[in-house]
Specification:
Blueprint (H helix, E strand, L loop, with lengths): L1 H9 L4 E2 L9 H11 L12 H12 L7 E6 L4 E8 L2 E11 L5 E12 L4 E2 L5 E8 L4 E5 L10 E4 L7 E6 L5 E8 L4 E2 L1
Antiparallel strand pairs: 1-8, 2-3, 3-4, 4-5, 5-6, 5-7, 7-8, 9-10, 10-11, 11-12
């Protein structure tokens, strides 16, 4: 549902990414994404508001609320926001990859809730969403996951270091399996 709402929001024009310097940073992508989420559009806002507030505090150099984890790693192009409440971990991650053509970047937002043991809790707001950024237009446009189909019964972990996504799936008997999606500059391969 969240992906559908995001699709409606950006399908026509994309999201403009404003930045200073030679190229955008993860903070520039994150702020563009969070700013594009319109409060008037209630679609998925409960999944975004606390993250946006934490990002604003970070930008102002203010401390985060007690129990919130907020990391911006500009060097590695990664952001994570995490809170815990009654045994549930709400984790939101963002990162980006440079594409091999030198003209595009791939930005991703991962919204996942888990139990403290790491087992995911899937809701209508659980999602991993990809955007393709064009250096010439300075806009990012919603796109399909490059090279794989998103499995909404799996949990995705974005890389803080490196380029690969870890996919974890739980079977009905409680066992988990993992696979790695490797970034090759154009798409992810298994």
């Amino acid at each position: 549902m969240f992906a559908l709402c995001a699709l409606v929001m950006v399908a026509q024009d994309g999201i403009k990414v404003n930045y200073k310097g030679a190229k955008p940073t993860i903070s520039d992508f994150a702020w563009a994404y969070l700013s594009a989420m319109d409060d008037e559009d209630e679609c998925g806002m409960e999944a975004i508001n606390a993250f946006r507030e934490a990002f604003i505090k970070h930008r102002k150099g203010q401390p985060q609320n007690k129990g919130e984890k907020f990391i911006v790693d500009e060097k590695n192009g990664f952001i994570v926001y995490e809170t815990k409440y009654e045994g549930i971990v709400d984790r939101k991650e963002m990162c980006y990859w440079n594409e091999a053509d030198g003209k595009h970047k791939l930005f991703v937002f991962n919204n996942m809730n888990t139990l403290e043991n790491g087992k995911p809790i899937f809701t209508e707001l659980s999602d991993i969403t990809f955007y393709r950024y064009n250096n010439a237009t300075k806009k990012m446009v919603l796109c399909d996951a490059p090279g794989f189909k998103v499995d909404y019964g799996s949990a995705y972990a974005l890389p803080r270091i490196g380029k690969d996504i870890i996919v974890t799936k739980w079977t009905d008997n409680g066992k988990k399996t993992q696979k790695t999606l490797k970034w090759n500059g154009r798409k992810f391969t298994k």
